[in-house]
Amino acid sequence: MTAPVRGASTPRTDAIPLGARSAVVLALASVVGVLAFCWPLLVDPGASLDDATVAPLVLGVVLLGVLAAVLVAFGEGGLDVRAVAMLGLLAAVGAVLRPISAGSAGIETVFVLLVLGGRVFGAGFGFVLGATTLLASALLTGGVGPWLPFQMLAASWVGLGAGLLPPVRRGWRESALLGGYGALAALLFGVAMNMSFWPFTLGVGSELSYVAGAPVAVNLARFVAFSAATSLGWDVGRAVTTVLGIVVVGPVVLPLLRRAATRARFTTS
Asked: How far apart are CA 149 and CA 237, in angstroms?
């Protein structure tokens, strides 16, 4: 087998191939997921989801159904036992990394694993890796709650996006691409999670509180102010950590993962 040329672009690996059916299911699931995250901007006063205690439970169940539908669609295409083994290994590593690193100034190294794993093993693999890693971490730490389906889907999008990034020459170009994507994904993850729980965090009456039925521009302004005041430092810390992890660890981990993908003979395109 010919060794890869240093500096050459790398063929896309699909450990869990995205067929036409699974791609459609994934697209529809993502649309439903975006609507679930953005529910505060879509709910009218008096609607059943206007109750901040009901909305996260109902939408959490909906998102679990969405994730289950995507996983079933992937499974119908046939999951290679080697892909399942690699998925289990990386999810276990991520589950251990997350509770160790999270909790101080937004430091959360699990995003490095999701970006690198999605980059090497493809978009479908990255999507499943995000969901399984967050689920395993929650089970390990007792962090199971109505927020978990939101975290799982948001992390799935991080891995999915990494698998969809365009091929570039290895080296500093790829590190820059993955680092920039990792920073953006880490920031958007924080924004998405903030949106999902913002309405029932502050109650009513505050200048940063959610106002059901208010114009979208009004609630968006309140949301931006809320995010800046409460979580911006954590989100920036997560982004910086992700970039540093990708730049420092990526050049070592990427060749190891690619060697594993080559030996497993996953589908390439």
From this structure: 23
* 3-state secondary structure (DSSP) of residue 23: helix
pTM, two decimals, is: 0.87
Question: What are the structure tokens assigned to 92, written together?
Answer: 């276990």
Helix (H, G, I), strand (E, B) or coil at 267: strand
Question: What is the average pLDDT across 80-97?
Answer: 89
Buried b (16+ CB within 10 A) or exposed e, 224-253: eebbeeebbebbbbbbebbbebbbeebeeb
**Could you give the C-alpha distances from 83 to 73, 90, 255, in angstroms and in order?**
16, 11, 17
Please give the structure tokens belonging to residue 128: 């499943």
Chain position carrying tokens 């689920």: 135
Cα R_g (the chain), whole angstroms: 19
Q: In this model, does residue 5 exceed pLDDT 80?
A: no
